[in-house]
Write a structure and sequence with these properties.
Rossmann fold, 102 residues, four-stranded parallel β-sheet
Length: 102
């Protein structure tokens, strides 16, 4: 499964679009500890008064920290046009990759 986190842009062919944090975590819950997730692409701005993409990336990092046996990391990318938020998400992605290698 490839997850495209974005409330506006349609997902590329072969990707499953999730529009918000609830849809994102429901999709993750359908997998077995991320093993079925091939890739995730993050947008940041998911609508007014909604959880933002950087917050979802941070929660994903927290999941990897807590679940110390979680070693599979999907391909993680950012397609957000929000430059500061994209940088923040990339930082969490880097941390996820480091934690999973431990």
């Amino acid at each position: 499964m490839k997850l495209w986190l974005d409330d506006i842009r349609p997902a590329p062919e072969g990707w499953e679009r999730v529009k918000d944090a609830t849809e994102f975590w429901r999709a993750i819950a359908k997998t077995h500890c991320m093993k079925e997730v091939e890739a995730i692409s993050f947008d940041n701005d998911l609508g007014e008064n909604r959880v933002e993409g950087w917050e979802i990336a941070k929660d994903l990092l927290d999941m990897y920290i807590v679940q110390t046996d979680l070693k599979h990391v999907p391909i993680l990318t950012v397609h957000s046009a929000n430059v500061p938020a994209a940088k923040r998400i990339k930082g969490y992605i880097s941390d996820i990759e480091k934690v999973a290698k431990q």
